[in-house]
TrEMBL record:
The keyword Metal-binding applies. The lineage of its organism: Bacteria, Pseudomonadati, Thermodesulfobacteriota, Desulfuromonadia, Geobacterales. GO terms for molecular function: 2 iron, 2 sulfur cluster binding; 4 iron, 4 sulfur cluster binding; metal ion binding; molybdopterin cofactor binding; NADH dehydrogenase activity. It comes from the Bacteria. It comes from Geobacter metallireducens (strain ATCC 53774 / DSM 7210 / GS-15). Residues 8-64 form the 4Fe-4S Mo/W bis-MGD-type domain. Keywords: 2Fe-2S, 4Fe-4S, Iron, Iron-sulfur, Membrane, Metal-binding, NAD, Oxidoreductase, Repeat, Translocase. It is found in: Membrane. One of its GO terms (cellular component) is membrane. The keyword Oxidoreductase applies. GO terms for biological process: respiratory electron transport chain. The gene is nuoG-1. The chain holds residues 209 to 828 of 828 of the full protein. Its cofactor is [4Fe-4S] cluster; [2Fe-2S] cluster. This is NADH dehydrogenase I, G subunit. Belongs to the complex I 75 kDa subunit family.
Length: 620
């Protein structure tokens, strides 16, 4: 960047990419973010940042940012004033309120601040009277935290990030933290190399974590995790390795009874693991003095998150490895404020529609007005055709975003919103730290903060608008028990970590297993290295490391198909086909292929169907 460090205005804030919640310092000049730097005194991570946090900030000052409101006239989006655009949205919401609030729905990104998410919820629940709200994390992270609610009574991890360094055995489930939450990958590296933490990985593919010393990776069939965890529990019960406290917990008898069908001899083939491996892993976990399970999860893993959270928490309860240092289950949300969205319960409660229900409602005509904030369902939700049909069917679509996304291009009204660098507020990390986000630059063009936009609409719908962030935060602290005692101005510089009082119980989980389709390969989707959602597509660092989508397949499969690296392949499922470049690697098991979901060109969600595994065929 072309400026002396001393000439920059420095603003401490929080990274807006993933749920790790790293703090960073933005270097600002002439209303532009020119750099981000780390300060080793900042945050739990001693200032470490990954490529996204360090080199992915360019989206803030991108030329492609939306700068004015847009209103559709004669089928075309045209520039409009805020009065005209907000007036249209207000009229539509007011009309719906008077005739049928349940015909209005909202989808919001968990990238907003807690205060904005709270206002969004108030706007829908109180301002409009609709409970049809959800966030993208509702696809996966919310499913995990919903599992935590039933097992623990609260939608948050029964563990903290510091437990990574104090545990004896870390069991990482389903993904590679180096890709989803890179700074946690560094933390794991430190734990393994300096503290001698034994690393066990269960995943449908190998990753960089698998290369660490002491790491043993168990590759299982996609979407068999719940079955596998039940099998581990069965071994522990049968071998008398359960903790004496377990049998006194509610739900224990039913849980043990339901494990009958999960003996390793019965389920090993479905999991794609040997009986010996399942038994060894169960013994290692149960016999470790302290053991921590880590579930880094993202939007791209639909289907069975709730059961997965419950199955892992059951294992921790069974062995007494919960509520102690170095123990528990650490649930890592994909987005920067996934945990805040869970804490604030940004999802339907009594009879409202969740994200899938909202899209179904749009398609059927039950939902007539959809307000999408910071989400791009066309690209990031499964089954693109179905999503596009739903968005095309809805009568009135409002999209509030930083960029003209594929979803925004279908809107009747587009509202330009602010990035994290233009706003004050708080994010809550997956480690339950409530941290201050600080405004570094003035808003770009005519963009307005989500807080400001929601507050305007809220007041025009007859509710008292909020005066400021402190007032909203105080209200949050009064309704979210774990935030009680926290104040906006009193938050700790390094984040105020809240604790939760859990009420523990076993919840029996349905064992899953995926039937394969003859001759087909299992497609799993997820994060590409250094990407997170669709925001990272506007960051130079992430795009330098990974500029386009691809399909990754095992070298043995590639040989059978006669496929070479970078060759364009047709990947076909029951709902469509897409052309992607081949990436041949050793980390995929045979019969399983992987594709990142972020990219709009050749979008993999054109062919996913919303199930944990989509079966595909591959041809040249
Ligand atoms: Fe940002 Fe996550 Fe990277 Fe930390 S690990 S710098 S929060 S993207």
């Amino acid at each position: 960047f072309k400026a002396r460090w001393w000439s920059l205005n420095k603003v401490k804030t929080v990274c807006s990419y993933c749920g790790t919640g790293c703090q960073l310092t933005l270097g600002v000049k002439d209303n532009k973010v020119l750099t981000t730097v780390y300060d080793e005194n900042q945050g739990f991570h001693n200032g470490q940042l990954c490529t996204r946090g360090r080199f992915g900030y360019q989206f803030v000052n991108s030329d492609k940012r939306l700068k004015t409101p847009l209103v559709k006239k004669n089928g075309k989006l045209e520039e409009a004033s805020w009065d005209e655009a907000l007036g249209l949205v207000h009229q539509r919401l007011a009309d719906a309120k008077s005739v049928g609030a349940s015909s209005v729905a909202g989808l919001v990104t968990p990238r907003l601040t807690n205060e904005e998410l709270y206002l969004f919820k108030q706007l829908f629940n109180k301002g409009i009277g609709s409970d049809n709200i959800d966030h993208s994390a509702g696809y996966a992270h919310d499913a995990l935290t919903a599992g935590a609610v039933e097992s623990l009574g609260y939608p948050a991890s029964p563990a903290s990030i510091s437990d990574i360094q104090t545990t004896n055995l870390l069991l990482v489930v389903k993904t590679d933290a180096y890709e989803t939450h890179p700074v946690l990958g560094f933390e794991i590296n430190l734990g393994v190399k300096r503290k001698g933490v034994n690393l066990r990985i269960v995943s449908d593919k190998k990753g960089k974590l698998s290369k660490l010393p002491n790491a043993i990776t168990y590759v299982h069939k996609p979407a068999s995790e719940v079955l596998l965890f039940n099998a581990l529990a069965k071994v522990i019960v049968d071998e008398g390795l359960a903790d004496s406290s377990a049998s006194s917990l509610p739900g224990y008898d039913d849980f043990v009874k339901n494990l009958g069908a999960c003996a390793p001899a019965i389920v090993a083939a479905q999991c794609g693991m040997s009986i010996e491996d399942i038994t060894t892993l169960a013994r290692d976990y149960a016999k470790a003095e302290k053991a921590l399970i880590m579930l880094p999860i993202g939007l791209a893993y639909p289907g069975h998150g709730k059961a997965l959270a419950q199955a892992t928490i059951n294992l921790a309860l069974l062995t007494g490895k919960i509520g102690k240092e170095g123990c528990g289950v650490l649930i890592m949300g994909e987005k920067n404020n996934s945990q805040g969205a869970a804490d604030l319960r940004i999802h339907p409660v009594a009879g409202g529609r969740d994200a899938m229900g909202i899209l179904d409602g749009c398609a059927s005509g039950a939902i007539k007005t959809l307000y999408v904030v910071g989400e791009n369902p066309v690209i990031s939700y499964p089954n693109r055709k179905k999503v596009e049909a739903a968005l095309d069917a809805v009568e009135f679509l409002v999209v509030q975003d930083l960029f003209m996304t594929e979803t925004a291009s279908k809107a009747d009204v587009v509202l330009p919103a602010c990035s994290f660098a233009e706003k004050n507020g708080t994010f809550t990390s997956a480690g339950k730290a409530v941290q201050r986000v600080r405004k570094a630059i003035d808003t770009i063009g005519m963009a307005r903060s989500d807080f400001d936009i929601f507050n305007s609409l809220y007041s025009t719908l007859g509710c008292d608008s909020f005066k400021g962030l402190s007032e909203v935060f105080a209200e949050i602290a009064s309704v979210v028990p774990s935030y009680s005692g926290l104040t906006f101005d009193g938050l700790d510089e390094n984040g105020s970590v809240y604790s939760v009082a859990n009420r523990l119980r076993f919840v029996s989980t349905v064992a899953d297993g995926q039937e394969s389709a003859a001759g087909a390969m299992a497609l799993v989707t997820g994060n590409a290295l250094n990407h997170c959602g669709t925001l990272s597509l506007h960051g130079e660092g992430p795009m330098y490391v990974c500029p386009e989508g691809y399909v990754e397949l095992n070298s043995g499969d590639a040989k059978k198909l006669g496929v070479e690296n970078d060759q364009t392949l047709t990947v076909k499922s029951s709902v469509g086909e897409v052309k992607l470049k081949a990436k041949v690697s050793m980390r995929m098991p045979e019969g399983v292929v992987f594709a990142p979901y972020h990219f709009s060109d050749m979008s993999i969600n054109s062919i996913t169907n919303g199930a944990p595994v989509t079966w595909v065929t591959i041809s040249k």
